[in-house]
Each structure stands twice: as C-alpha cells, then as structure tokens.
C-alpha cells in the first residue's frame, strides 16, 4: 500500500473577483491559506498553485538528492534548493519551465560525480516525474 496525502481547495465567486482557500488537513500547515486571481497573476498577498508546485519540487528534489548521495557513499552535510516555475499566458495559462537551483555541501565527492547524481535525482524524484511535461532545468553546484 502506498502513501496518500491530501489537500483541499475551496473557491467562491467568479475567477477575477472570487477568492479561495487551501488547507492541508493532515499536517495542519495550511489552514484556509488564501489564494486568488491577484495572488496568482498579480502581486497580492496569498499563495498560488505555481508557488506550491515550486515548494513541492524543491523539497522533493532535495530529499531525492540526499538519498542518492548517501547511497553513493557521500552523505551530504547540507542541501539548499530553490525552484522557480514559469507560467506563460500565451494561448491560456501554461507552465512553461521549471528551474531548480541547488547548492550542497558534500564531503568526499568531486564536481562531476556530484553533477551526475544531481541529474539522476532531477530525473527520478517523484515530483519531477509528475511534472515531466514541463521542461526542467538544473543548476547544481558543490559548496566548500
């Protein structure tokens, strides 16, 4: 049996003047977190689907990279990843690119070995697999 995670979204009103809320009942981390047209397409305070996808991707990739580095005998001291999701409005809203940027402190590994493992993590983390219809770029560097 697999693991199942749940989130809920509620929307009230039309697209532009309506408002919504997102909750994550299992963790309780988000409880009625606000989102709407202006937090997605403008700069109003609140979250949006692309931000949540970016957060999920950064977290998943970092965990996958840690697992793969550890399996290769190089447990990391630290990994910091940011993810940026581009949304194009041409022809209707479409996610057009995801850019992962990771910096890691990993004792005992060279840059080429690290890059190969990072590329593998990018291809095989569950979120990358789910988002495979969107081009994913990776900028991965060792620190220290």
TrEMBL record:
Coiled coil: none annotated. GO terms for molecular function: peroxidase activity. GO terms for biological process: response to oxidative stress. InterPro entries: KH_dom-like_a/b, OsmC/Ohr_fam, OsmC/Ohrsf, OsmC_Ohr_Peroxiredoxin, Peroxiredoxin_OsmC. Residues 1-35 are annotated as: Disordered. PANTHER family: OSMOTICALLY INDUCIBLE FAMILY PROTEIN. This is OsmC family protein. It comes from Luteimonas salinisoli.
């Amino acid at each position: 049996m697999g693991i199942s995670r749940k989130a809920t979204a509620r929307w009230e009103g039309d697209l532009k003047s309506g408002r919504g809320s997102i909750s994550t009942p299992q963790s309780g981390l988000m409880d009625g977190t606000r989102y709407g047209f202006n937090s997605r397409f403008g700069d109003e305070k609140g979250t949006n689907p692309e931000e949540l996808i970016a957060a999920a991707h950064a977290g998943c990739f970092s965990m996958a990279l840690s697992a793969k580095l550890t399996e290769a005998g190089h447990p990391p001291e630290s990994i910091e990843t940011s993810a940026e999701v581009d949304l194009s409005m041409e022809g209707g809203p479409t996610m057009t690119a995801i850019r992962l940027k990771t910096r890691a402190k990993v004792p005992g590994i060279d840059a080429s070995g690290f890059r190969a493992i990072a590329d593998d993590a990018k291809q095989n983390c569950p979120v990358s697999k789910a988002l495979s219809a969107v081009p994913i770029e990776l900028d991965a560097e060792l620190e220290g």
